[in-house]
Amino acid sequence: MVFGRGMRLLAGAMTVACMVLLGPSAPSGAVSGRALPATAVREAVPNRVMTWNICNPCSVSNVGRAAEIAAYAPQVIGLQEACVRDVEMIREYLETLHGLVYRVEYGTVLQNWGRCGGLPWSPGAFGQAILSAAPMTDRVSVEFPDGGSEDRGYMAVTTTVGGRSVRVFNTHLAQRLQEEVRADQVGVLATEVARYDRAIVLGDFNAVPDASELDPMWKLAADADPGCRPAPAGTCEPTTDWQSKFDYVFLRGMTPTEHRVRPTPYSDHHPVHADLDPA
User: Fold this and answer.
1) Handedness of CA 5, 161, 66, 71 (dihedral sign)
2) Does residue 28 carry a pLDDT above 80?
3) CB 264 within 8 A of CB 58
4) Helix (H, G, I), strand (E, B), or coil: what is residue 264?
């Protein structure tokens, strides 16, 4: 194990060297500027969680995506629109370039050659993924009975956040203009979330906070953005390039201490992260 990790760190060092020689792999030069030396082993922030729709299909660098995650070093990350091959590369870059070691579980709902590459008879898997610095157990992956214009679903794992065990969900609901479909999907998800006193629900809900289909979630949980509630009471920070809030960190039995959204050049959705009070 030590030898294998050493080889990966060496590979990371060589990658960094190539980046220095050849230049950044994404516009703006942010990747090479923010990447840490491969020998700098880091720890994830134990009470921090993140959700991010990484955009697919999008012609962006997985090195850049990894650097974006590493800037916050969350304990748990929920990714949507994720191809297995991309997630594996992101996880590798997080370790070799940033010294952050994550486990991964998948909740794929599609085998899609157009989105994820591969061969027509062996397409790449597409859907959700959860990365966690702590071990994960009791994984489930559920496809919604009606995905709308594209198959959709949710996944869940049990892991540790802030030193305490918690059930973590990750979902991606039906695309816009499919309110009735999303309402059914939220019903399926909320029924499962309600079974847990402590739960974190990450995901791209494709709906603004006062959309009626989100009512079951608001009855169960609060968003990590302390000012965000359904209008007219709340003021929610946008999470997309088109200035809408579609991305949520819903908390049940947990309290946020900090919430942050920052635009990124690597997706049309912004990474959203929250620090939580483990008590």
Assistant:
1) negative
2) no
3) no
4) coil
